[in-house]
Amino acid sequence: MNYFLVSSILISLIFGISDASKCSDCIASGKHWCVTVNECGFSPCVTSISKALNCPELPDKAHAYDDAFVRSKILVTTAAAFNNHPDKCFKNAMPTMSLSKTFSVNCSAEGPQTNCFGFTSFDTTQKVIVMSFRGTQGATQLTEEILDFFTGKKLFFPDAGHIFTYFYDAFFFLWNGGLSQDIRNLKYKYPGYELWVTGHSLGGAIASIAASYVVHTGLFDGNNVKLVTMGQPRTGDYDYAVWHDKTFPYSFRIVHHKDIVPHIPPQYGKDELFHHRTEVWYNNNMSTTDPYHICAEADGLYCSNRQLDSYPPDHLTYFDINMPDWGSQGCPKM
Fold it and tell me: Known SUPFAM superfamilies for this protein (predicted)?
C-alpha cells in the first residue's frame, strides 16, 4: 500500500489543502482561518489557524517522503553518530559509504563540560556527502539544554530568525572544531554531490542549523540538500521556521508516537517557538508495515501535537530499534 498517497488524500480531505492559498490570504488580512468549515474568520470555530506557516501544505511529488529510503539510508547515517567510529556502521549497513572525519568538542560555553559529536562522510556510488550529529548524552547535557530554554536565543542571520543558544553554540563549536574545513574540502572534491544532513534529538537540532548555515552562506544550494531529523526539539522561533521552509524543499522531522522531545520547549510564549516543516508522524511502533502521517501543518494541533501524554522510550526507539544502542554496536544486521 502506498501510505504516502493514502495519507496525502486523507489530509487533503481533512485540512482542505486546496484552500492553502485562501488560508494564507485570510491570515494576512488579520483574521483566522477556520479549518472546521474552510472559511476565513468563521466564528465560533472548533479548530482554527492563526499562523501562516500552519496553512495546510504538503511537499511536492519531487520531494516526497520515502519510508524505504529513510529506513535503509538515513537511519544508518543517523545511528552511526552514536558510534565514535561511524565507519563500523557503514561496513555493516551501508558499505558504499566512506567516513571522512569525526568531530568531538566541548559544546558548553558555560558550566560543566559536555560533549558534542558529529561526522562527515561521502559515497561515490550514491554521489552523496553527509553531515550527521549525535543526540543528547547524559543527564548533565540534558540539564544544560533544558536550562538554556529559559535563557534566550541568539540571532542566526538577520533574515533567518533566532535559535536557542545551546544549539547555536553546539553547532559553532563543531563548525570551528574542524567541520568547516572538512565540509569545504568535500564540496571542492565532489562539487555535484547531494548533501544529506541528519541527527537525532540534540543532533536533530544541530543538523537543522548545520543545513541552514551551509545554505545561507552559499556553500550548498538548498535544492540539493536533504535534511532528515528524528526526535528533534524545537530549535528556533517562528521567523527561523519561516526562513527554513522557504529554503528547503526537502526537509522532514520524523516523530515517533509519544516522543516528548519534539514538544519541548513549549510552542507558545513570548518568543513564539516553532517547528519548521515537514513533520512525519508514526503513531505506532514504526515497524516496516506501519503507516505514517505527512503533516500538513508545520506545528499545529494535529499529528503528534494531539498527544496529551508521553512515553520516554519512544524517544530512543525509531524504526522499531533502539537507535543509540544499535549505532553504538556498529549497526549490526537485523
Answer: alpha/beta-Hydrolases (SSF53474)
Tens-digit pLDDT string for the chain (334 aa): 444 434 443 444 444 444 677 898 999 999 999 988 889 999 998 888 988 999 988 999 999 999 999 999 999 999 999 999 999 999 999 999 999 999 999 887 776 678 899 999 999 999 999 999 998 776 677 677 777 776 778 899 999 999 988 899 999 999 999 999 999 999 999 999 999 999 999 999 999 999 999 999 999 999 999 999 999 999 999 999 999 999 999 999 999 999 999 998 888 665 678 999 999 999 999 999 999 999 999 998 889 998 878 898 999 999 999 999 999 999 999 8
End-to-end Cα distance, the chain: 23
Neighbours of 110 (CB within 10 A): 10
Q: Could you tell me the maximum CA-CA distance found in the chain, to the nearest angstrom?
A: 59
Distance CA 139, CA 162 (A): 26
Distance of CA 148 to the CA centre of its chain: 19
Q: What is the dihedral of CA 85, 88, 94, 95, to 10 degrees?
A: 110
- Helix-, strand-, coil-residue percentages of the chain, each rounded to 5: 40, 20, 40
Give the pTM: 0.90
- Tell me the domains of the chain and their CATH numbers: 58-328 (3.40.50.1820)
C-alpha cell at 62: 519531487
- 160: cell is 533567518
Q: Order of strands across the sheet with 236-237?
A: 153-155, 162-164, 236-237, 273-274
Can you say how many angstroms the Cα of residue 284 is from the centroid of all Cα atoms in its chain? 19
Dump the DSSP string for 132-199: EE----HHHHHHHHHHHTTT-EEE--TTS-EEEHHHHHHHHHHIIIIIHHHHHHHHHHSTT-EEEEEE
Answer yes or no: are the C-beta atoms of 219 and 250 closer than 8 Å.
Answer: no
